[in-house]
Design goal:
- The structure holds two protein chains of two kinds.
- Chain A is built from no helices and twelve strands.
- By secondary structure, chain A is mainly beta.
- Chain B is an all-beta fold.
- In chain B, a hairpin with a 6-residue loop joins strand 4 and strand 5.
- The chains are: A mainly beta, B mainly beta.
């Protein structure tokens, strides 16, 4: 069975602070995908990144960076110099590779960035 | 990624009634899914909408309560039947193309049942 744990439930930071959102997963699949989605107050779920299990390179996209560590089954997300617009719920998710693979979501982390 | 729209964006309904939510994609997709997100909770998969055949439901969800249609590769509907206040949620559709193996989500439908 697959499981995604986001132990942090709510994080509050002041603008320009760096913040890291933790994600730990469990799976028996040998190949799998890890995802991060952002859900702003409007409710839409916005895709941020997909990482394949055999690609452990960290990724940076602007102020966003992701640290994938297979040894600790973690896929953490860091926002550098946070902004008010980063305020949202962030979900980590996991799926097996291949067609029609179901997404297993974590419970989400509510990030509040104060001006 | 595909452009996905949902109608209605929000609704307030009386208990015992039914609501049909539409999901439209701007291009053909292989897979379409329906999720429920109860207040303050994570997303739960209701079913996979199969084109031309019955949807595949997850444990805890049944066709009588959540009938789904998918008449073609760009459109699907989810009906929430005989609603109760416990059905108050955000309902989201997602789509996936075979080679992409990534789900993209629609804007969601916020449902409040009184």
């Amino acid at each position: 069975a697959q499981k995604v744990t986001q132990a942090q439930t709510e994080i509050s930071v002041v603008e320009k602070e760096d913040v890291t959102l933790d994600c730990v997963y469990e799976t028996r699949d040998t190949t799998y995908y890890l995802f991060w989605y952002k859900q702003p107050p409007s409710g839409e779920l916005v895709f941020l990144i997909r990482r394949n299990s055999f690609d452990e390179q960290n990724e940076i996209s602007g102020r966003y960076s992701w640290n994938f560590q297979k040894s600790t089954s973690s896929f953490n997300f860091t926002i550098t110099a946070s902004q008010v617009v980063d305020s949202a719920v962030y979900f980590c998710a996991l799926s097996a590779t291949g067609a029609n693979s179901k997404l297993t979501f974590g419970k989400g982390i509510t990030l509040s960035v104060r001006p | 990624s595909a452009v996905i729209s949902q109608k209605p964006s929000r609704d307030i309904c009386q208990r015992g009634t039914s609501l049909t939510i539409q999901c439209q994609v701007d291009s053909q997709v292989t897979m379409m899914f329906w999720y429920r997100q109860q207040p303050g909770q994570s997303l739960t998969l209701i079913a996979t909408a199969n084109q031309g055949s019955e949807a595949t439901y997850e444990s805890g969800f049944v066709i009588d309560k959540f009938p789904i249609s998918r008449p073609n590769l760009t459109f699907s509907t989810l009906t929430v039947s005989n609603m109760s206040p416990e059905d108050s949620s955000i309902y989201l559709c997602s789509v996936e193309r075979l080679i992409q193996e990534t789900q993209y989500f629609g804007p969601g439908t916020r449902l409040l049942v009184l």
